[in-house]
Specification:
Layout: E1 13-19, E2 26-30, E3 39-44, E4 47-57, E5 60-68, E6 71-73, E7 80-83, E8 86-93, H1 141-156, E9 173-174, H2 179-189, E10 193-198, E11 203-209, H3 210-220, H4 229-234, H5 237-242, H6 244-252, H7 271-281, E12 285-290, E13 300-306, H8 307-318, E14 339-340, H9 361-370, E15 375-379, E16 385-390, H10 413-420, E17 435-436, H11 442-449, E18 456-460, E19 467-472, H12 473-481
Parallel strand pairs: 9-10, 17-18
Antiparallel strand pairs: 1-4, 2-3, 2-5, 3-4, 5-6, 5-8, 7-8, 10-11, 12-13, 14-19, 15-16, 18-19
Length: 482
């Protein structure tokens, strides 16, 4: 690093300074340079409007300003005071060797064409890496207990019927529908799961999901498979569900046990029970059904309840009383939730499931099953986020029967993502990558996860977009209801 100029005998603390507002040339100057020396800042790769530099400074209180295209500037979104050199920014560095008081500012923009959540880079953040990170703020057990108790009590006193929209449609599939046609329906309707209806029994008997599609694709890609493309023309959902292949894979695949029966709930079921049903059975949705057996009518399918719908209700209810729930204002890195990239030397954490764009589609399908995840971050060689491949993306391969003509080991994730980015028949479109920063509050992350279709939020480092972890809907509810 240029311009360190510090006494080699002094204990120094690394600090990252960032100017994210653009410019042709940007320099840093401050009390640590005697205000006479100007240290150059360099653009972040992929983000030409974001300049940064890492300095080793002695512990203590420092003042600093930026020189942008020859003019003195300060960051209005960082702490500042009136000093001898006009308005200056300030930072307090501790002497702890693992402390990284990175000075990051809002309005950072991305140089990527990927459809990502760039609002993530529009806030004051702190940045960490495998060797430098913020000390965890102290959160008392009492605060945790009170906050979780209030949310649990809210969910226990509100019912599933409160999730029902004023209007909408719910799609169910006949178990006698051919598998190939069923997955085409999922694709054209832009959905990843659908309840299964059995007319002979007069009831809902299960759910067809993207996981079924994954298992069928893996079986088709197996050279020893007895399931041919032609058989799929007549192979019904019922026949697929009953095959020994399906049951064996569901029961013993990598020790994962998936539900073989329908998990449903009535409209008078409280939301805590609905959330726990989803968590315990590891399903994406629970059909809300209503039956009046006295008149002999068929049960009605009212809605497909998901954790995001439940979370939306929680966020709306507590939006104006955050002060009464301390944990909602806590940064996510201070809470025991989510899956994080293991720190150097940390062997206790589970590795994060990530893939490169040139990884095979086969590797992705295997990872969905082995790691039991709903989506996989796709990263470059620097582990910076490029895109996300989700279970729901699998149904894009149903378009024009693409999955019957591909080799899973030869098609790359990049190619599969391109297929999924083609215009959708029902006009569905939306942001693919949802990101947050480790310094974001739990409430902000919950707000993101409460949006329709969002099941996971990728934790990234501002500027570089290096993946640091993932928080899923199930992570949030396991934490709140534990």
């Amino acid at each position: 690093m240029s311009g360190s100029g510090m006494d080699g005998g002094t204990n120094l603390t690394p600090a990252r300074f960032v100017w994210p507002y653009g410019g042709r040339s940007v320099y840093l100057s401050g009390s640590f340079t005697g205000w006479s020396e100007h240290w150059p800042m360099t653009p972040v790769e992929g983000c030409p409007t974001v300049f940064q530099t890492i300095c080793s400074l002695p512990p203590g209180y420092h003042q600093y300003k930026f020189i942008v295209d020859g003019e003195w500037r300060h960051d209005e979104h960082q702490p500042f005071v009136n000093g001898n050199y006009g308005i200056v920014n300030t930072v307090l560095l501790t002497g702890e060797p693992d402390y990284n008081p990175a000075v990051m500012s809002p309005h950072t923009t991305s140089g990527s064409n990927m459809d990502v959540d760039n609002e993530t880079f529009q806030r004051v953040v702190r940045v960490s890496d495998n060797t430098l990170h913020e000390p965890l703020p102290r959160i008392s057990e009492a605060d945790l207990e009170v906050s979780c108790h209030r949310i649990s009590a809210f969910l226990s006193t509100h019912m599933a019927y409160e999730l029902l929209p004023e209007s909408g449609k719910v799609i169910a599939l006949d178990v006698d529908l051919p598998v190939k046609q069923a997955f085409h329906v999922l694709y054209t309707q832009g959905i990843s799961t659908a309840p299964l209806w059995d007319f002979s029994k007069g009831q809902f008997v299960g759910v067809l999901s993207a996981l079924d599609f994954i298992l069928i694709m893996r079986e088709l890609g197996n050279n020893a498979s007895n399931l041919t493309e032609e058989e799929l023309q007549k192979h019904t959902i019922s026949a697929w569900k009953e095959t020994k292949l399906y049951l064996n894979k569901q029961a013993i695949e990598h020790g994962k046990i998936f539900p073989k029966r329908l998990v449903q709930a009535g409209p008078d079921k409280n939301l805590k029970d609905v959330a726990l049903k989803i968590l315990h059975n590891r399903v994406a949705t629970v059909p809300i059904t209503h039956s009046t057996s006295s008149d002999g009518s068929y049960p009605q399918l009212l809605y497909l309840a998901s954790l995001s719908e439940v979370l939306k209700l929680v966020c709306r209810y507590f939006r104006h009383s955050l002060s009464s729930l301390p944990i909602l204002q806590s940064p996510i890195y201070s809470l025991p939730l989510g899956t994080w990239v293991p720190k150097i030397g940390d062997s206790n954490r589970q590795p994060l499931a990530i893939l490169r764009p040139n990884s095979s589609l086969s590797a992705a399908l295997n990872l969905f099953i082995q790691a039991d995840v709903s989506s996989i971050p796709i990263v470059d060689d620097n582990d910076s986020l490029l895109d996300v491949y989700s279970r729901s993306d699998i149904t894009a391969l149903a378009k024009d029967k693409i999955y019957t003509r591909i080799n899973l080991d030869e098609m790359t994730i990049h190619q599969a993502l391109q297929l999924g980015q083609e215009p959708h028949p029902n006009g569905a479109s939306g942001q693919r990558c949802h990101m947050c920063l480790r310094s974001d509050s739990l409430h902000k992350v919950m707000d993101k996860l409460a949006k329709p279709g969002v099941r996971r939020v990728v934790i990234t480092e501002a500027g570089s977009k290096r993946v640091e972890g993932i928080i899923s809907l199930s992570d949030i509810f396991k934490f709140l209801l534990s």
